[in-house]
Amino acid sequence: MNITILGATGWIGGEITTQALLRDHQVTTIVRNPDKLTAENVTLNTFDLRSDDDIAPLLTGADVVIASIGGRAAGNHELVAQTAHRLLTALSGSSTRLLWVGGAGSLETAPGVTLVSSADFPAEYKAEALAQGEALEIFRTTNTTTQWTFVSPAAVIYPGSSEGVYRIGGDAFFTNEQGESKISVTDYAIAILDEAQNAAHPNRRISVAY
């Protein structure tokens, strides 16, 4: 499978790249700073999402595009929703699917009540969570033929190897028997690649946790 990954120099994007290569997929990366890319045996493209340049030519030939986009480092959180719309538009009319590395903040703790709105949601992650919620709304309201899947991780995603079987949910926030919502970055990346290969959840948001 030909997989194009945006954000391959980031923590999550880098792990998705690693897992894709372990599965012998053909991987193309699109990064802003190529000096930060550590992965080998990939096709490298340089692109700045803050520019007005056309990204569509860099997506040609991909079976799946996986986007791991965040605005926390530079404080440009508006880039998240803008990129969601940009990719949906660029891929419309093609057979390429789009998988989006989403956030947990938009998961619902009760009907219509999101995790990010809770009083104890960490303040340092709130702007990022709200931006991902805006991106989810873009996916749900944009008139496009692009097949997409928005993949929310657990509330806690942490460094670590695979711990076994993960569970897939929908919009509702869920926990394990110990009341925890967690997943390792490795298993989150594995879940992303499983979805890329199986296309089991088209045009919807799913959540992944133990």
Q: What can you see in these coordinates?
A:
By secondary structure, this protein is α/β, with parallel strands linked by helices. It has helices at 11-22, 56-59, 78-91, 126-141, 185-198; strands spanning 2-6, 26-31, 43-46, 64-67, 97-101, 108-110, 113-114, 148-152, 156-158, 167-169, 182-184, 204-209. The protein has an eight-stranded mixed sheet with strand order 3-2-1-4-5-8-12-10, with helices on both faces. The mean pLDDT is 96.
List the keywords.
Rossmann fold; 29% helix; two-stranded antiparallel ribbon; 210 residues; 12 strands; single chain; 23% strand; globular
Mind sketching the topology for me?
Elements: E1 2-6, H1 11-22, E2 26-31, E3 43-46, H2 56-59, E4 64-67, H3 78-91, E5 97-101, E6 108-110, E7 113-114, H4 126-141, E8 148-152, E9 156-158, E10 167-169, E11 182-184, H5 185-198, E12 204-209
Parallel strand pairs: 1-2, 1-4, 2-3, 4-5, 5-8, 8-12, 9-11
Antiparallel strand pairs: 6-7, 10-12
Helix pairs in contact: 1-5, 3-4
- Overall strand count: 12
> Taking strands numbered 1, 2, ... along the chain, how are they ordered across the largest sheet?
3-2-1-4-5-8-12-10
What is the CATH topology?
Rossmann fold
Order of helices and strands: EHEEHEHEEEHEEEEHE
Give the rounded overall mean pLDDT.
96
Which of globular, elongated, flat, extended, rod-shaped describes the shape? Answer: globular
Task: Pick out the low-confidence regions.
Answer: none
Indicate the proportion of strand residues. Answer: 15-25%
CATH superfamily: NAD(P)-binding Rossmann-like Domain
Q: What is the SS-derived class?
A: alpha/beta
Q: Could you give a short account of the major beta sheet?
A: 8 strands, mixed
The CATH class assignment is: Alpha Beta
Count of folded domains = 1
- Tell me which oligomeric state these chains represent: single chain
Question: What is the helix tally?
Answer: 5
The radius of gyration over CA amounts to 16 Å
**What portion of residues is helical?**
25-40%
Name the CATH architecture.
Answer: 3-Layer(aba) Sandwich
